[in-house]
Amino acid sequence: MRIAVLGAGPAGLYCALLLKKADPAHAITVYERNAPDATYGWGVVFSDRTLAAFQEADHKTYRAISDHFVLWDAIDTYYHGELVRCGGHAFAGLARKQLLAILQARCIELGVSLKFHVEVRELAELGEPDLIIAADGVNSLARRVHAETLTPSIMYGKARYIWLGTDNVLDAFTFIFRENEAGLFQVHSYPFDGTTSTFIVECAEDVWQRAGLEEASEAASVAYCERLFAPELAGRRLLPNNSKWISFPTLTCVSWHAGNVVLLGDSAHTAHFSIGSGTKLAMEDAIALANAIEQHPDLERALAEYEMERKPVVELFQAAAAESQAYFESVKRYASLPPMRFTFNLLTRSGRVSYDDLRLRDPRFGMAVDRDFAARDQAAGEARATEFAAPPPAFVPFHIRSAQLENRIVMALPAGLTSDNGVRDEAQYGDLTARMAGGAGLALTAPVAASADGRISPACAGIYTGEQRHAWASVIASVHRSSGAKLGIVLNHAGRRGAVRPSQQARGLDRPLRAGAWPLLAPSPLPYTPRNQMPKEMDGDDMARVRDDFVNAAQAADAAGFDLLMLHMGHGYLLSSFLSPLANVRADEHGGTLANRLRYPLAVFDAVRAVWPREKPLAVALNVTDAARGGFAIAEGIAIARALKDHGCALIQVMAGYTVPATEMPYKRGFLTPLSDRVRNEAGIPTLVDGYLTTTNEINTILAGGRADLCVLTPVYAPVRVKTGEGA
Amino acid sequence: MRIGVGLPNTLPGADGALLLEWARRADAGPFGSVGVLDRVVYDSFDPFVALAAAAGVTTRVRLATTIVIGPLRATALLAKSAATLHALSGGRLTLGLAIGARADDYRAAGVDYRTRGRRLVEQLASLRDAWEEGAICPRPEGLAGPEILVGGLNDLTYARVARSCDGYAHGGGPPRAFARAADKARAAWADAGRFGAPALWGQGYFALGGADAVAAGRRYLRDYYAFTGHFVERIVDELLTTPQAVARFVRGYADAGCGELVLFPAVADLTELDRLAQVVSGLTSVELPGARRLEALP
């Protein structure tokens, strides 16, 4: 086969040599516009998994590469005048120039033709090869020619960065965070040969402008960074290499091949530099493409196989890179985290590394995380730095007002265990008591109606009759006798989602009662679905009455012995409907602006605050985004959380969606965690997060990274132990 | 986890006699259900008619559509077919619905392809009403409507499951792909405040009769899934061709929390069914009809 390779970067060279090695009959020519020894950028990084793939693909190249490795296994983080060290990460670095020299030599040895100083301007100049491998980088010519089939799109990052080198020799991958009068700068630095390290400086666009770097020359930029990072550089220099401040372009393509043209490496995809080198992905592409061509004589099939194998892998990597990129673009949000928690948050930013992973990689670091977490979270200011041994974060007590939760794990009691009069019966009583013994620090009820017309369904629990209050009091007394768990009540008014059949009977949500429905209230006369009842638009009297119902219910909850009260402002129930422009279209002082939409929910909060004992925490289950077109987004959710905090709210349970039925939440394990992270760190209020977390590992990762303060644990589905009836 | 077996309703060479005998043996075997697939523009039996025939020769197994393409059918007629089959079989129907992946099926049925997602959502909201109100559907005393599952990999699918269905029907793939989808379905279910857990159904293909059967099975899959382009080779690669492959696949699905795994034949030969029955009977992660249930310890 006649093969033309565009671009003599690592991907193009590596693919050429692997193809030639597999079948010496291939006539392979690599075209490169630059000289053999010209290179941009400094070092490249490989993980041990990539190295294993190299070893298998071509041992000779692997040996040559490994002769030049710089190995390290630590990540150092400089932040707020402290250095935090974490080991066990196993990376290998190499000068890009060295890598190219090795690959060029191996290509020549195998008989690949290398043509440097050749600028290909049109694909026709290549003659009529059987296959064109476009390894010509992010500005690929071949991709532009076939743009219609390949459908590329490029998104530019919000931060600015500059790729520099330094003659400072490092023994770890190093992050530096440094704030000056312009704002926060961060450095990603790693060694790649015995004398030099890559040194990437990054900052937000506005910081870059304030620092005057927009107009700065290369030399001026270098001088600025040398001054800024003088302590870490310890007198060493920064080295430019045709360096400019740019925004990171993330490239994706719908298809990776068109006719006899196939994209490889950066011409097909890019992933933010903070998660590791694009060179790794590009060289893995080269291995996959060479394998596919060797295995499938039909070229079209081979290219399709290559794309099918690599695209899902690259997409996962790009998703993790996007998380990482978003982290660095908004890292200022975490500036109030103490150093250990900041570092843990940094190391787990992409979602690919967990608490257990870090403990395994560096047990000392794991124990330091535990000790720091336990020490920090003692009642305000009382750091117990001499803590000898500490439990994992999930099992560290949590102080909230005068209450102390024994641990950070919250159990959500299931809904639908109540009889038709809203009273918890004996069976549930037993069930609840048994569950409390399971070790949660806090148990939260399902939504409990503050009034009869605030019920979701007739089976909804309530706390508005004497019988109900009595039942709750006896349950709580029993739980308090048998365990240290605290009990929280979630007080709700269903609003326009009321008067429906219980979901386990109706086998679905929001299916209206056929008989016995009660009139519904809502901020605006908009039924939840076309099948649901038209609610009454609340007037001043309705608002006063419902507010008083909440107040009475709060007093009853206190008398019954609940330790915590949570007002429900989520999932499209009454108070959440007021917050959402999709459910609230009022023209008066309760509709329109956020301040107006917030007016009534805040009034209810204040009224309840006035009667709920000071020493017991008052919390809110809050929709922080509508997750629907036309609804409010997380920025407003954070503003609402701030307002609630100012009014004395002690804790926010982060919720999303269901203000309208067509919710567009991407449900998956931990889907609420990013929202909780933002609310906690931007509004500065403790958060509780649910979102299908089934392991203490997930919970420890969230807590230790400062993404929430409490987590709901969902019991796992698959039994580990089963009774077989034998040998008992 | 229970194991279901697919009826050969889309297999070349399957005739009525084979389909009925297949259903009879499945009913007598270690299976929890018989499943059918749905395709308009293909030499295949209609899923509801095939299940109705199977209902007549079986007494025990559930009858499952995994899946039928809901939007191809007028909602009232879909409701009526399903309710009729459910009533005539003594409440044994599990109705799996999805939007399907082929435009030619929609063209042949004269239904708009682009609005299929919206149509499915509307159908999910209407079916139970139709079954409960009794204006167009039979309503035998004491019989609740069929269980509804929804299939699909779009992120919106999981919200649909939580809003108006009993569970999720996965379209096939390795256990880890099922596990990811199952997590999403459970996350949506819990967030919606639904009680308990969603029903989770998986599926796969088998050809256990040696080299010739495997070759025939692969030919069939390449033909049936030709519309997926090169992806068809992934489907072909996942064909279960040995008892060990079946055992591993079953264990993987059981560990991921699957409730019912429906294994579809790729060859229309009764010995295939017998071989599968033999393999399934020996597996510890499978709940066998009539056998003692294993009881989970806390």
Description:
By secondary structure, chain A is an alpha/beta fold. Chain A has a domain at 395-713: TIM Barrel, CATH 3.20.20.70. Chain A has 23 helices and 31 strands. In chain A, the strands form seven sheets. In chain A, strands 21-22-23-26-27-28-29-30 form an eight-stranded parallel β-barrel, surrounded by six helices. Chain A has a seven-stranded mixed sheet with strand order 6-5-12-13-14-11-15. In chain A, helix 1 (10-22) packs parallel to helix 10 (278-295), helix 3 (59-67) packs antiparallel against helix 4 (96-110) and helix 21 (634-646) crosses helix 22. The N and C termini of chain A lie far apart (69 Å). Chain B is an alpha/beta fold and 298 residues long. Chain B has a single domain (2-281), classed as Luciferase-like domain (TIM Barrel). Chain B has eleven helices and nine strands. Chain B has helices at 16-28, 47-57, 75-88, 103-109, 116-133, 155-164, 175-191, 211-224, 232-237, 243-255, 270-281; strands at 2-6, 33-36, 62-69, 93-98, 147-151, 167-169, 199-206, 260-265, 295-296. Chain B has an eight-stranded parallel beta barrel, surrounded by seven helices. The longest helix of chain B is centred in the middle third of the chain and has 18 residues, at 116-133. The radius of gyration of chain B is 18 Å and the shape is globular. The mean pLDDT of chain B is 93. The chains are: A alpha/beta (728), B alpha/beta (298). Chain A binds chain B through residues 301, 304-305, 308, 414-416, 446-447, 503-504, 506-511, 529, 531, 571, 657-658, 661, 663-669, 671, 690-692, 714, 717-719, 721-725, and chain B through 124-125, 128-129, 144-145, 148, 155-156, 158-159, 162-166, 180, 183-188, 190-197, 229-231, 233-234, 254-257, 292, 294-297.
